[in-house]
Write a structure and sequence with these properties.
Length: about 150
C-alpha cells in the first residue's frame, strides 16, 4: 500500500471513530425548537434555558440536575429548557463541582451557559448564569434537545 493510500485510510478510520464517538443527544421536534427560540415567558413560572454552544468535548454527554433531579444531558451545540416555580433552585453539572443557585421569579427567563472544561483525564463543565442578550445568542446557535425535567 502506498504512503498516500495509508494516509487516506487513516483519515477515513479517524473520521469514523470521531463521528461514532460523539455524544448522543435526544433532539426535540423542530417545531418545539422554533417555539422555544421565540423566548416567550409564562406568567406563572420561571423558565430556564441551559445551553452548550461549544464543540469542545464533542464526545462528552454532560448531565445537568435541578434540585438533585436529572434535567437533561447536553451535547455540543444543544440546549434544553424547563419550568421552575418561584424560589431558590440548585442547578448542578454532574461529575464536576459546578453548582449554580438560581432564585427564580415567576414570568422571568434565565439562561445558563454550560461551558466545557477539559481536564487532564476527563471533561467537566462550569455553569454560568448569563445575561438575556448573551443567552439568546447562545441558544440561537444550538438545537433543542428533550429535557427530562418537569
Amino acid at each position: 500500500m502506498s504512503f498516500t493510500a495509508k494516509i487516506i485510510k487513516a483519515a477515513v478510520i479517524s473520521s469514523i471513530v470521531i463521528l461514532t464517538g460523539c455524544a448522543s443527544i435526544n433532539k426535540a421536534p423542530a417545531g418545539m425548537d422554533a417555539e422555544s427560540k421565540k423566548f416567550t415567558s409564562k406568567p406563572d413560572v420561571a423558565q430556564v434555558y441551559v445551553y452548550r454552544n461549544e464543540t469542545l468535548g464533542a464526545a462528552l454527554s454532560m448531565p445537568v440536575t435541578v434540585n438533585g433531579k436529572l434535567a437533561g444531558n447536553t451535547g455540543p451545540h444543544s440546549f434544553f429548557k424547563f419550568d421552575l416555580p418561584a424560589g431558590e433552585h440548585k442547578i448542578t453539572s454532574q461529575g464536576t463541582e459546578s453548582q449554580l443557585t438560581v432564585v427564580a421569579e415567576k414570568g422571568k427567563l434565565y439562561y445558563v451557559w454550560q461551558e466545557v472544561k477539559m481536564g487532564a483525564f476527563s471533561g467537566g463543565s462550569k455553569l454560568q448564569l448569563v445575561s438575556e442578550e448573551v443567552g439568546k445568542k447562545g441558544v440561537a446557535e444550538c438545537t433543542q434537545i428533550q429535557s427530562e425535567f418537569n
